């Protein structure tokens, strides 16, 4: 029987090949220091090269499969995060483009709602509320001032009838003008509050009483934009409507300026007095 060539370096042992032993009906010796624990074959340099190559191939194959499954899992996680982020963005857009009419259920303390939504103030006292809404600093609230505070002059309540608006003002005066003087003084207000009276929610919203610039700033720009917002970012319907109002005001001012420069305003001449105009 021939010997297997090139035994492992450092070993001076003659190793008999497995095939030769099988041909001679010899039992394969048990795995020991001279046999590979993986394939049970005798150690030779050729065997080591083949065995290690196969082992590396198996390891690489396993690594490839593990990498594939990890990539698949990461892809699924990324898609889930993307979906969640998309839903949040859509929700934010829906809120930004939705109505700012503040359709909320009536509140027993309308003044608190008004201060939070219209002035972004949560902590205040009755005297400061009175002074803030005493627009001419006269020390009293008039019918016009209460009407303004409740936002009855705002465009959002343009469809409300005049009778309903007057009824709303009378309701407030019935609470805080016990002497029926036609005015609500600071003392009337403070005494009413001390007695447990509150401004009622009459169903006309939070009380928009600022100009168009103030209302746009406090109800939209501060909520959905920031100091670093550029003109290109102002694409919400509220932004477009706001700038449209500015354009209309500028156009109206230009028309008025032209009319003032005319010696005769043709539009003011009755039709029966016009000839060839």
Descriptive notes:
By secondary structure, the protein is mainly α. The chain has three domains: 1-70, no CATH class; 110-210, Orthogonal Bundle (Recoverin, domain 1), CATH 1.10.238; 213-263. Helix content is 52%, strand content 1%. It contains nine helices and two strands; from the N terminus they run H-H-H-H-E-H-H-E-H-H-H. Helix 8 runs antiparallel to helix 9 (237-261). The chain is flat, with a radius of gyration of 44 Å. Mean pLDDT is 70; it is low at 1-24 and 89-103. The chain crosses the membrane at residues 66-90. Keywords: Membrane, Signal, Transmembrane, Transmembrane helix. This is EF-hand domain-containing protein. InterPro entries: EF-hand-dom_pair, EF_hand_dom, Nucleobindin.
Kindly, what is the distance between the CA atoms of the first and last residues, rounded to a whole number of angstroms? Answer: 131 Å
- Sketch the topology as an H/E string, one letter per element: HHHHEHHEHHH
Our count of helices gives: 9
Whole-number count of domains:
3
The CATH superfamily name of the largest domain is EF-hand
Outline the biggest β-sheet. Answer: 2 strands, antiparallel
Helix content: 40-55%
CATH topology of the largest domain: Recoverin, domain 1
Structural class: mainly alpha
Mean pLDDT: 70
Strand content: under 5%
Keywords: Membrane, Signal, Transmembrane, Transmembrane helix
Protein name: EF-hand domain-containing protein
Transmembrane segments: 66-90
InterPro entries: EF-hand-dom_pair, EF_hand_dom, Nucleobindin
